[in-house]
Specification:
Shape: globular
Strand order of the largest sheet: 12-11-10-13-14
Order of helices and strands: HHEEHEHHEHHEEHEHEEHEHEHHEEHEH
Radius of gyration: 21 Å
Strand content: 5-15%
Number of strands: 14
Number of helices: 15
Bound molecules: FE3-S4 cluster
Distance between the termini: 63 Å
Length: 395
């Protein structure tokens, strides 16, 4: 990979140890994937935050990098969800040992210039690249959204690579940064109108088939942004989809004439219904309904407030979101409505990266196919899949 004189000096340690280590990662990636050079980025999103996934080794690595003090991000860089609600972990019953470690991890990232936005939907809270910007994002649902709905360009980066890119302000130019790799290779014709959790079921089916390919959807009705984040999260969890197109909706849907695509699939209403049922792993009672995977938008929180207003919830309810979106939900009165009904708006974390298996829950109700896919394998708990209004039970 070609390096400028300044980039070579960064590799040689002339700009300090943090930059040298970060360049090591970027150059190794570029060499592996045949990148021609590094390209400037405008935004980063860094995963690998929960103490549950990175442990003490990850914390030590970050503290070493931060203590060196020779490099920190100067671009718009935000952090993925940690394993706790950073402010209200005690009230919500998170284990103390875990919360202490978690705060140390987030503090180390902040020292490296990564904002404590702590969300997988950074595009809802000010990290919004422009169309065709090069960026380095790592949370898979956020990658699918920023590539597909915003039309910025990123590969599915690992957490360390996104952190390195944030610190250096560059990423290797290969993969989805190049227009020729952004063409669709599978057409998906959906025969029925979709709503709510149907979008997750569709993404789950197609992710399994397409793997790391680029699907092109022909839908019967127009999805909104919440539907698109649900669809992308599911595609990115059952497969490794980083980019999809929706005809007449997403900004690059007309990159290639669909007549040239040979692989075509048809998805019926029955297949969507069957997949919704298959995503449920038990017929036991739900003890925690956990919404907001990916993190809830303000509209989604309003929808929950409308469902529970004036009622008493039987099972526990978490609505996961960022601290920024919750601040507006507080002002709009949605938080008070949800809390009066017995639910909680939980900031920063989510049902997959939190240690919910240590918190006494056994069956989790989810409206996200990504969560339905990961909660059994990452937390060892059962899930019930459905729409919010069907999952929440009242006294
Ligand atoms: Fe976000 Fe957690 Fe789902 S990080 S996409 S809410 S698994």
């Amino acid at each position: 990979m070609f390096l400028t004189k300044k980039e070579q000096a960064m590799c040689d340690g002339e700009y300090g140890e943090t930059i040298r280590k970060s360049m090591d990662i970027l150059v190794a990636l570029g060499d592996i994937y045949g990148a021609s050079k590094l390209v400037d980025i405008t935004s980063a999103q860094v995963s690998g935050v929960s103490y549950k996934t990175i442990g003490d080794a990850g914390l030590e690595y970050l503290e070493d990098l931060a203590q060196d003090g020779s490099g920190k991000s100067t671009i718009n860089a935000s952090l993925n969800p940690p394993g706790t609600d950073l402010d209200n972990w005690r009230e919500l019953g998170f284990p103390e040992y875990f919360a202490i470690k978690q705060n140390e991890i987030v503090d180390a990232y902040a020292e490296l210039g990564i904002s404590k936005t702590c969300t997988c939907t950074p595009y809802l809270v000010g990290n919004v690249p422009r169309f065709r910007d090069h960026v380095s994002w790592s949370e898979s649902s956020a990658v699918a959204y920023v590539n597909s709905v915003i039309g910025a360009r990123t590969n599915r980066e690992g957490g360390p690579a996104a952190l390195a890119a944030a610190i250096v302000g560059k990423t290797p130019l290969y993969g989805f940064h190049l227009e020729e790799n952004r063409m669709a290779n599978l057409i998906v014709n959906v025969s029925s109108e979709l709503k709510g959790a149907d979008f997750g079921a569709l993404g789950y089916i197609i992710g399994k088939v397409v793997g790391g390919g680029v699907p092109y959807f022909k839908l019967q009705n127009t999805p909104n942004n919440n539907d698109l984040k649900t669809l992308g999260a599911a595609l990115a969890s059952s497969g490794s989809v980083a980019l999809y197109h929706v005809e007449n909706v997403t900004p690059e849907y007309d990159l290639n004439p669909t007549g040239e695509i040979e692989d075509i699939m048809f998805i019926s209403e029955n297949e969507i219904l069957e997949t919704r049922q298959q995503l449920t792993t038990t017929d036991k009672e739900i003890d925690l309904v956990c919404l907001g995977c990916p993190h809830s938008s303000l509209e989604e929180i309003k929808n929950v407030a409308d469902i529970v207003k004036g009622k008493t919830i039987k099972n526990k309810l978490w609505v996961c979101t960022s601290v920024s979106v919750k601040a507006t939900a507080d002002r709009m009165g949605y938080t008070e409505i949800i809390e009066s009904a017995g639910g909680n708006i939980v900031c920063d974390t989510c049902m997959v990266v939190a240690p919910i298996e240590e918190m006494g829950f056994e069956v989790i109700g989810v409206n996200s196919a990504k969560a339905a896919n990961y909660v059994p394998s990452m937390c060892g708990l059962d899930v019930v899949y459905g729409d919010a209004e069907d999952l929440i039970q009242f006294e």
